[in-house]
Amino acid sequence: MELRHLRYFVTLAEELHFGRAAERLHIAQPPLSQQIRQLEKELGFELFHRTKRNVQLTEAGQVFLGEVQQILRQLQQAIQIGQQTSRGEIGQLVVGFVSSAAYNILPIILRTFRSSVPGVSIELHELTTDQQLKWLRESRMDVGFLRPPVEENRFSYETIFQEPLMVALPETHLLASQSYVCLTSLANEPFILFPRILAPGLYDLIISLCQQAGFSPNVVQEAIQMQTIVSLVAAEMGVAIVPASLQNLQRIGVVYKTLQEPTQKVAIAMIWRKNETSPTVLRLVEIVKQAAQQW
Fold first, then answer.
1. Residue 24 in contact with residue 15, Cβ under 8 Å?
2. Cα–Cα distance for residue pair 33/30, rounded to 1 Å
3. Which helix (DSSP H) or strand (DSSP E) does residue 147 occupy?
C-alpha cells in the first residue's frame, strides 16, 4: 500500500464516479479502477459497491474513509511543521542576557523576533557574561547577549549595540547638581563595582578610565547585577560608573551624570556556537543582525 492508493481512494469516495475521479487525479479511468482493486485486495474487504450506473461506499469503506482522511490531515500537518522547523519558524530557544541588556536592546529584540516568528517560544535567563559562556559550553543555552570581549574560538559573536558610560550618584551628592562630572572629582569617592570575573572587558575599561584620571578606584562594595549596584548608590553607599542605558532603570535616590572626559563606548554582543545548525537559532541570529543595522 502506497500513499497514492489512499489519495486515489479518497478522491473516488468524494466523487463516487470513476470518470470524474480519474480526471481530478489526471490519470486514465482503467488504471484508477485497477489501483482501487489492488487496494481492496490488500485490505481484504470491499470499499465500494459498483454497478453500471453508480458507485457507493460500503459500510467498511465509509469507516475506512474517515480514518484515511484523518491520516492525510496528520500527514499534511507533519509536512507543514517540518517546513516551518526547517525555516526556523517553530521551536524553542534558550536565551541568556546580561542585566543591563534589559534596559537597551533586549526589549527591541524580543518584539522584533516575536513579530517575525511567532511560532518560536523563548526561555529567558538573566546571566552574567561568565555564566553565559559556561551555559553555552554546556549546551544549556542557544544564544546570549553579553559584554565582550570573547576569547574562545568555539563561539561566534557580533557586536550589536554600543553606548557611553555615565556616573551614577546619590541624589544627595555634592556633584548631583552639575551637568557634567569630571572623573578626577571622584578620586576620593567610595566605588561600587562588580567582580572582574563577571565581565572582564567592562571592568577593565572602568578601572582604566580611573587610572587615566590619576587614581585607582576605592571599591567598597561589589555586586553582581547592575540593578543592585544602582540600588546601593541610592542607599548612598558609593558611586558607580555604569552604561548609559541604566538611566532607563528609574530608581529613586539616584541621578546619572555625563562624564566630562571622552570615554570608549561599551558594547553588547550576541554570541552563539560556531557551526550552529539549528534553523531556529540561525533565524534569531539573522533577525538580530538585521535589526542591529538600524540601531
1. yes
2. 5
3. none
In whole angstroms, what is the distance from residue 11 CA to residue 35 CA? 12
Which of 107, 112, 153 has the alpha carbon at shortest distance from 271?
Answer: 153
Confidence of residue 250 (pLDDT cuts 50, 70, 90): confident
Sequence length of the chain is 295
Of 52, 48, 54, give the one whose Cα is nearest residue 36.
Answer: 48
Residue pLDDT, tens place only, 194-216: 999 888 989 999 999 999 999 99
Strands 266-273 and 120-126: unpaired
* Span 53-104, pLDDT tens digits: 889 999 999 999 999 999 999 988 888 778 877 777 778 899 999 988 999 9
Whole-number mean pLDDT of the chain?
A: 92
Dihedral sign computed on CA atoms, order 234, 240, 246, 248 = positive
Q: What's 239's DSSP letter?
A: B
Find out whether 6 and 44 touch, Cβ atoms under 8 Å: no
Looking at the DSSP bridge assignments, the partners of residue 292 are: none
